[in-house]
Amino acid sequence: MKKTNVFKGIALTVLAFCVIIGFTACPQGSNSNKKTETTVFLPNTMVEVIPASTTAGVTVEHGEPTDGKWKVHKDGVVHTGPVTVMPFKIANSEVSYRLWKEVYDWATGPTGGAGQPAESYVFSTPGQNSGATDDHPVTMIDWNDCIIWCNAYTEKTKGIDDCVYRTGSNDVLRDATMPTVWDFYSSLDESKMAGKKGWRLPTDAEWEFAARGGDPTAPDWAFKYAGSNNLDEVGWSSDNSGGTAHPCGKKKPNRLGLYDMTGNVDEFLFSPYNSGGHAAHNHPMRGGSFNLEGSNVELSGARLPSNSPYDDTGFRLACSF
């Protein structure tokens, strides 16, 4: 090879390097101060709603907002006095079928070995993806399945000691197919839940507090939907869904970064639906679904009783500190 060609190659390399440096280090006209930011949506990410440092919780007075839309239920009745919500986290999305299936397969697989469940979990249904992909929310599960799955996910990721839902003898609830639903409810001892840090369903009060943005003094607290007065910005209903569920996180989130709190699929909650408690069979679903009209997915009214599996019903995770 001739030296002249070598020097030409070196010169071209240096020139190219300088051009690259010029484009990356020098201001480019009026766009020099602009910065492009991309938010990556990661489903099933936990969001701190009320921090652990707020040890007394947050008390919401009845009638906030002043139009009376605050519909917190506790122990099955609409409160007419203040409701205190204690520190908690909630997932930024409905549980995806991908996560459901991963935990379901683990929970129903081999037992007793390292990294395996101590005992098998038994579900009423295997669940399904509510659309065409594993990124859709899981549906076709009942309330019992949600309870059992939360325990399985806790045992898998945090350890069995943090499992929330237990019997009076402190055994972890593992079977969603007890002889009758009454057996399942009567076996659940809420006094054993205290101090457990595992995965669980949100209460009615927690769900609404998070859906409204977590600040009773902020303007978005009184929005019709979670994060907006414009349904099409934040939720899926029969008005815009095309009659089917959509993958998690395709609409805008509310101020806390929570997606699909309005529409897509209804979400099971832990609180009993009426004053009969858990033994009364039904539990509330909040948020509304792709099957409901826009007026029926408003935060003030989207509350339905159920325990049964439907193709437009799923759930969202919560946990305590």
What's the SSE blueprint?
Layout: H1 3-25, E1 46-50, E2 58-60, E3 73-74, E4 77-78, E5 83-85, E6 88-91, H2 97-107, E7 128-129, E8 138-139, H3 143-157, H4 181-187, H5 204-211, H6 231-234, E9 235-236, E10 262-263, E11 266-268, E12 283-286, E13 303-306, E14 313-315, E15 318-319
Parallel strand pairs: 9-10, 11-14
Antiparallel strand pairs: 1-6, 2-5, 3-4, 6-15, 7-8, 11-12, 12-13
Helix pairs in contact: 2-3
Question: Percent range for helical residues?
Answer: 10-25%
- Broad structural category: alpha+beta
Individual helix count: 6
CATH level 3 topology:
paralog of FGE (formylglycine-generating enzyme)
CATH architecture: Alpha-Beta Complex
Give the domain tally. Answer: 1
- Distance between the first and last residues' Cα: 70 Å
The largest beta-sheet arranges its strands as 13-12-11-14
Q: Stretches where pLDDT falls below 50 for ≥5 residues?
A: 1-38
CATH class: Alpha Beta
Coarse morphology: globular
Supply the CATH superfamily name.
paralog of FGE (formylglycine-generating enzyme)
Summarize the biggest pleated sheet.
4 strands, mixed
- What's the helix-strand series? HEEEEEEHEEHHHHEEEEEEE
Q: Gyration radius, to the nearest Å?
A: 24 Å
Number of strands: 15
- Tell me the strand percentage band: 5-15%
Please state the average pLDDT score.
82
Written account of the structure:
The chain has helices at 3-25, 97-107, 143-157, 181-187, 204-211, 231-234, and strands at residues 46-50, 58-60, 73-74, 77-78, 83-85, 88-91, 128-129, 138-139, 235-236, 262-263, 266-268, 283-286, 303-306, 313-315, 318-319. It is of the alpha+beta class and 321 residues long. The chain has one domain (46-319): paralog of FGE (formylglycine-generating enzyme) (Alpha-Beta Complex), CATH 3.90.1580. It has a 4-stranded mixed β-sheet with strand order 13-12-11-14, with helices on one face. Strand 3 (73-74) and strand 4 (77-78) form a beta hairpin. The longest helix is centred in the first third of the chain and has 23 residues, at 3-25.
